[in-house]
Design brief:
GO terms for molecular function: DNA binding; DNA-binding transcription factor activity. This protein is of the alpha+beta class. It has eight helices and 13 strands. Strand 12 and strand 13 form a beta hairpin.
């Protein structure tokens, strides 16, 4: 990916696309394009302060840590997403970890350049919006994991981590990298159940599966199933198996 394409991505979707042109130009003027190999950590929980990152290609996993558990994969950031703004706004250390899930690229606003930028109150206000976006994702994450029926919970997490639902807007995706093991961890379900659930969804025409990747074809149908919506669609896809225990 070259610099021009990276800028085109972040100016066409996500947080930066909604900011004033003067702010966009000021940020991009001091940002650098970085490349990551699969498995590279951008930063880990409790790392010292660092800069802001905007995803331009590939995907980055968000790993959460508490005093009692972790790191645990909780979400996947795809092109257009920004993360790591805390230290620029005064945070002392990283509150979560982020790792490349595949060969990926990101624009990086270095810490000192970012702190210089937020001397302007309007720039500080703009960057603080990333935290609000992150909080919304955290709320959605908790809401997804409170779905008691596991196949619906898997479906809700699938919509969120593929980017098929953002800001309550549903849209099909192209092929995105996602393994069944990763989805199982994020949905708190067994890999076997994830495998069977995705096979049902593919048989219904709602998604297309590939090797360590998939494409969402009918996000409306998936949302109807995940959230038990009553919009004239079937409550579940046809399946050769149906557990008598709805919690499975």
């Amino acid at each position: 990916m070259d610099r021009a394409e990276a800028e085109r991505i972040v100016l066409s979707k996500g947080w930066l696309a909604g900011q004033a042109p003067a702010f966009q130009a000021a940020l991009l003027r001091v940002a650098e394009l970085l490349r990551f190999q699969k498995g590279d950590w951008v930063f880990r929980f409790a790392d010292p302060p660092g800069g802001l990152y905007g995803v331009t290609a590939g995907s980055f996993g968000v790993y959460i840590v508490t005093p009692h558990a972790g790191p645990d994969l909780s979400h996947i950031l795809r092109p257009g997403w920004w993360f790591g703004q805390g230290p620029i706004l005064g945070g002392r250390q990283r509150l979560f970890g982020t790792r490349a899930m595949e060969a990926s690229c990101a624009l990086h606003l270095p810490l000192e350049a970012g702190r210089e930028l937020v001397r302007d109150p309007e720039a500080a206000r703009a960057i603080s919006q990333i935290g609000q976006i992150g909080m919304q994702v955290a709320v959605e994450n908790v809401s997804d994991l409170m779905i008691r029926r596991a196949d619906r919970r898997i479906c809700a997490v699938l919509l969120r981590v593929t980017g098929a639902i953002e800001d309550a807007v549903l849209r099909p995706t192209g092929e995105v990298r996602l393994t069944q093991s990763e989805l199982a961890r994020m949905a708190n379900a067994s890999r076997d159940l994830v495998n069977r659930t995705l096979a049902r969804f593919e048989a219904a025409g709602w998604l297309r599966l590939g090797y360590n990747k998939l494409a969402i074809l009918d996000p409306e149908a998936l949302a109807d199933f995940a959230y038990a919506r009553k919009n004239g669609r079937p409550a579940a896809p046809p399946a050769p198996w149906t557990s008598s225990r709805p919690g499975l």
